[in-house]
């Protein structure tokens, strides 16, 4: 199970599923990350967190705890 | 008291009173100690730093 | 007719700018009941209607107080219409909220903001198509440039008057039929106009809806489970997916992108290095070091222009030309000795000492303004976020710190954007550890005193950051300040070339403020200090041996405190520190005045300090003043943020204590390395301080709160 956390910089992945529940999951989805959407990993901050991605045409900066919840392929 | 005294004394008094007046005027206009409008020191706020503009409420006093 | 209009939209889409443009000065700020969120209401200019500013939200889920407040307002207070402000450059994400608002079934207008940016990007939006697809009127505007605001007002008034409700959107058939069922289950139990909103929230298993209408979800559970099986996903996911699919379709039909130029990717390439895991922080340190080097270097390799100019102003302009000139004029015109002293040694010398740093200030300002304009400061927040989170502080805390490097007052006020109250309070208490504009001349003076040690400035910055982190760790152990940092999602706008006009204006503004401050606050302080230091308690004028003056008496008492820090029993240094409460630049002004008679040659403050004290003592003086209580204006801001004078007092006391401890340790460590003479009691205090700090940092519950299991767990 690969998550966004393990995705290399510069790659584009597709979301398979969003784990977690409640507020965390809701927050992720509200930001536009849903099943089947494409995510492009732009950069990863020094020390690995947060991760910056491009999703639906805009840029987002995600904490590790969010990135871990997003299953990709 | 010489003329020199008067001139110098006058100049000093002017400067002091002037300074006080400017400070009072700044108080009324809500300027902070940087001398600019409340939200951000004029220029230290760049358009790229994302701050909700809703934080300027120096009037809320 | 007087209507109530709600203003809703994402954070950072120009909502506040629009609100201000619509209501002007008629706005009032209150509170939403039960939460600590500001409620802004104002009258729409040119109408009788009221505009209520709802908090910035991305969605209408039941999870954050902002969303709950907005939902409840719309449902319970029933505004006559809603203006949904949308950032056209971020259309897809903004529309997610719009779709949910449309479901509310209330008359609505979409204000498409930032149209000026769309134009400059070369993109096009088919407003009519967008309006048709969404089922509501769409009005393109630019709130910042005040374009078409009138058009918006006309439209919203007309929509409110005609009670023009949205044409409801249709999602996938499977979901729509489920929604119909949900509506039946909810019928009669919720307001009819909002029933579609409730139906969808019910499907999404919204906790607030379940509370309001218990059991309703069970009524649709059969079809719900079937749907979830079919899509192999949970209901809320399905609905969200659907919304975004719809948005995608709408946007692709109405939004035409111009071919993007290289700029975006250039930003990416730069960021790849600047925020990279290996280089990010060293680059940050390097940039700050470079800035100070350019402004203040004065050593073996020569003098930086800034340092040279300052030395010239102080030594030549004032020292050889103005001051002797004025003194001569006064003597020639028989001016009273005391008056001459006040004018030349007090005002001119004192204010001049501060103004002398203007060249270095200008250079610093230029560098810092360029960094901000280019967009680098946002990257800094991004880079520091991880470090802060490691210490259980919100990355969002870093932004007030950045603002604080300009002036502490807006820095403290910027803390309002931090949601977590604990973080907000801690940050407010620590913002002033960052070197503000007023501290820059002090940095410059100390740099000069330490023979052009440009690293002093860098030290001040990073020392500040370290103290913020240390404070975060220690203060979070206080029971009422513990708490998990709120999640922080941040956008990094692309880099762009600094705009010449606005950069120049920034530099000018800051420089001019500096000059104005010198001519007002510092002038007044210097006058008072001169008088107090040139008159004995029996009001005799003295020219030398200022140690007999009133000020020496006051300062002398305070000076005892600072003996262990290596300052000697210098009333001059103590008095200067005291005037730092008025303005940090006063440190320089006061020192210039009280130390003036210490040497016959006109020397600037830096040189005099270097003669007076060992290098480590200079450093301890610097450290203490950098981090102790801020100026009165900043203390006032802290009070406004923390609420009570008691808390403000605690905050200030904490800062002074921490500053003292750190100064002590620095003095002893640096002094030992440097070979300076240090008293035994200083060593003793330093060790005690270090132990106390270590204890507070390491021990889990140093404050012994009863029933508090460590405090950092949540």
Q: Describe the strand arrangement of the main beta sheet of chain A, using strand numbers.
A: 4-3-2-1-5
Considering DSSP H and I runs of 4 or more, what fraction of the residues of chain C is helical?
Answer: 55-70%
**Major sheet summary line of chain C:** 7 strands, mixed
Number of E strands of chain C: 11
Explain this structure.
The complex is a heterotrimer of chains A (73), B (61) and C (714). Chain A is an alpha+beta fold. Chain A has a single domain (4-72), classed as SH3 type barrels. Helices cover 18% and strands 37% of the residues of chain A. Chain B has 61 residues and is an all-alpha fold. Chain B has one helix at residues 3-28. Chain B is rod-shaped. The N and C termini of chain B lie far apart (47 Å). Chain C is an alpha/beta fold and 714 residues long. Among the domains of chain C are: 4-162, Rossmann fold; 173-256, Helix Hairpins (Orthogonal Bundle). Chain C is 61% helix and 6% strand. In chain C, the strands form three sheets. Chain C has a seven-stranded mixed β-sheet, with helices on both faces. Chain C has a two-stranded antiparallel sheet with strand order 7-9. In chain C, helix 14 packs antiparallel against helix 17 and helix 14 packs across helix 23. The radius of gyration of chain C is 31 Å and the shape is elongated. Chain C starts with a strand and ends in a 16-residue tail after the last helix. The relative contact order of chain C is 0.07. The model of chain C is unreliable at 706-714 (pLDDT under 50). Chains B and C meet through helix 1 of B and helix 16, helix 17, helix 18, helix 19 and helix 20 of C.
Please provide a brief summary of the model.
Chain A has 73 residues and is of the alpha+beta class.
Any chance you could write out the topology, listing elements then pairs?
The complex is a heterotrimer of chains A (73), B (61) and C (714).
Chain A: E1 12-18, H1 22-30, E2 38-44, E3 51-55, E4 58-62, H2 64-67, E5 70-72
Antiparallel strand pairs in A: 1-2, 1-5, 2-3, 3-4
Chain B: H1 3-28
Chain C: E1 4-9, H1 15-23, E2 28-31, E3 38-43, E4 50-53, H2 65-77, E5 81-87, H3 91-103, E6 108-113, H4 115-121, E7 124-125, H5 127-134, E8 138-140, H6 149-162, H7 173-186, H8 195-203, H9 207-212, H10 216-219, H11 221-231, H12 235-254, E9 255-256, H13 263-274, H14 280-296, E10 298-299, E11 302-303, H15 305-332, H16 337-355, H17 358-374, H18 376-390, H19 398-404, H20 408-413, H21 421-430, H22 440-449, H23 455-475, H24 500-534, H25 550-562, H26 571-579, H27 586-595, H28 605-612, H29 615-627, H30 632-642, H31 645-674, H32 680-698
Parallel strand pairs in C: 1-4, 1-5, 5-6, 6-8
Antiparallel strand pairs in C: 2-3, 3-4, 7-9, 10-11
Helix pairs in contact in C: 3-8, 3-12, 5-12, 7-8, 14-17, 14-23, 15-16, 15-17, 16-24, 16-27, 17-24, 21-23, 22-23, 22-28, 22-29, 24-27, 25-26, 26-27, 29-31, 30-31, 31-32
